[in-house]
Amino acid sequence: MNKPLSPHLSIYKFKLSLLMSIAHRITGGALYFSMIIFMFFLASLALGEQYYVIFSTVIGSWIGKLIILGITWAIFHHMLGGLRHFIWDIGKGFEVKTVDQLAAITLLGGVLLTLIYWLVFFII
């Protein structure tokens, strides 16, 4: 008995907008779980200096800095993805060219905003 295949297997092609849609979902989940790190930060403040020193040491390591950099990028990427969805919610930006442009802006904008944020952070 031949069952029909799902149309996505034969119709849809991989595009940047598809990747940005997936990344938007992943960054949303990552931001949800990043609140655990924020909880540990707040707990270390409440528990006293020795716990804050431990938290600072862990988050100050290269892997901790990489995680914080990733969280920063996730914040900006998710924000721009949300703005992209808001544009669609008001009924604009559905042309294929515009969808592709918004996807590129989401990707590049998230990276650029992350770089700008950390450059400003280290300068000030």
List its salient traits:
124 residues; mainly alpha; 0% strand; elongated
Write a structural description.
With 124 residues, the chain is mainly alpha-helical. It folds into two domains: 30-60, no CATH class; 62-124, no CATH class. It is built from four helices and no strands. It has helices at residues 16-47, 49-60, 62-89, 96-123. It is elongated, with a radius of gyration of 20 Å. The mean pLDDT is 93.
Question: Radius of gyration over alpha carbons?
Answer: 20 Å
From the helix content, strand content and strand pairing, which structural class follows?
A: mainly alpha
pLDDT averaged residue by residue: 93
How far apart, in Å, are the first and last alpha carbons?
68 Å
The amount of beta strand, in percent, is: under 5%
Could you say how many structural domains there are in total?
2
Q: How many DSSP helices?
A: 4
Provide a short characterization of the protein structure:
The chain has four helices and no strands. The chain has helices spanning 16-47, 49-60, 62-89, 96-123. The N and C termini lie far apart (68 Å).
Question: Topology, pairings included?
Answer:
Blueprint: H1 16-47, H2 49-60, H3 62-89, H4 96-123
Helix pairs in contact: 1-2, 1-3, 1-4, 3-4
